Amino acid sequence: MNKLELISTLKNEAHISKNDAAKVVELFFDSMADALAAKERVEIRGLCSFFVKKYKSYTGRNPKTGEKVTISPKKLPFFKCGKELKERVDYKSEN
To answer: 53: Cβ–Cβ under 8 A, 6 or more apart, which residues?
Structure first.
């Protein structure tokens, strides 16, 4: 499912206009991104959680030349699946 399909599903299930559904989806994603940028954890019970994971600097290699390269420290968003979602996906795959 992509963003447009999510908007369409919300429009049909909530019986709202496509424009309103798009605003809700945008607000949801923007709020999540803002929270992660502020180093806050985002948790949606039963579905998943997102948090920012810090990575230290390390030495890597340039794949073309094999030359050693220092990779600077970075922060990346990390996704962790919730228990209920794991069980739902596993249950669905057995049927």
So the answer is: 75, 76, 77, 78
